[in-house]
Each structure stands twice: as C-alpha cells, then as structure tokens.
Amino acid sequence: MPSSRIARRALATAASGALLLALAAGCSATPPLPSSPTTPRGEATVNALQTMYDAVAAADPRVTDPLATVSRSGANTVLSLSVLITGDEAVSTQTLSAVLRAARDSSIPFDQLDLNARSAANSEQILDLTPASKGLPADANVLAVDGGVTLMRAGLEKIGG
Question: Domain extents for the chain?
C-alpha cells in the first residue's frame, strides 16, 4: 500500500507542476476557441461607414475621398474623419457645416468627431478649418486642433440643417 500512496502523491505533484508550468508559460488548461468569421455587426459597421462616406462626399462638391475610423478614447467612441478638398479657396463655414452634418446624421454611433481636411492636389498639405469653424454656432463648442476640429455629439446637434 505505501507504494501506491507514493505513486499517487508523485502523480499529483507532477500534474500540479505541469499545470503551474503551463500557467507560467501563458497557456491555459482549456483548448483555444475556434476563430469566428466576420460578424453581421462588423459588416453593418462597414456598410455604415460606406454610407457615411457617400453622404460626406455628396455634402459639398469640393469634398472627396472621405476616410474614417471609429475608436474608443476613455468612455467616448470617437469618429476620426479625414477628407480631401479640391480647389484653392479656403474651406468655408458652409462646406464645413455640410460635412459635419453628413457625419452627424450617419448611422454610426459616436460621441466625439475629429475632422481634418487635406488638399486634394497635395495630400501632405493640411487645410486649416479654424477660420471656417468661427462661423459655427458658439454653443457647438468647437475645439480647433492642429488645423482640424473636434466636436462632441451635443455640439454637432447645434449645427442646423
């Protein structure tokens, strides 16, 4: 009988050691979950982005090639939107408002919008949206950052249209 007790203790010790080694190596005792295909929600997000791109591009004839990402920043969902603007004239409040409304009215849920614009002729050139933002309602609480603008959802709701 003593040898069977020793054998059980040795087996338990070996099993415990193997489990600790697996945990230390970052492994788990459960098998990995199979990878899942693209979810319908992911497809819906892609479709919502494309719909927003179409609306932003249609908002003003000077606006082309919108591109956006949705990310989290603390508790906020942030829509970061970049557009190309054709022509040599400065961006007007009318053009800025049209782009902001198109993004706001999209089906993408977000709390904060970060918008920047670049020249269609030279995509390295950042266009300053600050002068155009001066024509937006004061209670929209526009924050100018490096030529772009940032607005919270409540501020976007103040822009008519």
Answer: 41-156
